[in-house]
Amino acid sequence: MKKLFSSLLLWGMMIVNTLAQGKIPTTESDYVNNSVEMADAMRADGKIYVVVAVIVTLWVGLIVYLINTDQKLKKLEQLVNDK
């Protein structure tokens, strides 16, 4: 049952991903546009630092979680090997 559910979930995600890729027509201005308006506006408003802070916080949290999990796993491995 788990394999069937996993297969259906994976298949559904692939279908949604395929349908989400809509075609946008490319114009001449797309090739000469060198600036990113959203990044410039966020930088001007000071919001880019908030985005960077959130991303760094998420990465640090993930690394701390992985280190903590690794330490717990090592303790469990030692308990199993000692018996």
Descriptive notes:
It is a single chain. The protein is an all-alpha fold. It contains 4 helices and no strands. It has helices at residues 2-19, 28-32, 37-45, 48-82. The radius of gyration is 23 Å and the shape is flat. The protein starts with a helix and ends with a helix.
Any descriptors?
83 residues; single chain
Q: Strands, helices and their partners?
A:
Blueprint: H1 2-19, H2 28-32, H3 37-45, H4 48-82
Q: State the share of residues found in helices, binned by percent.
A: over 70%
Query: SS-based structural class?
Result: mainly alpha
Beta-sheet strand percentage? Answer: under 5%
Largest sheet composition: none
Gyration radius, rounded? 23 Å
Q: Mean pLDDT, nearest integer?
A: 84
Order of helices and strands: HHHH
Separate helix tally? 4
Shape: flat
Write a brief structural summary:
The protein is mainly alpha-helical and 83 residues long. 81% of the residues lie in helices and 0% in strands.
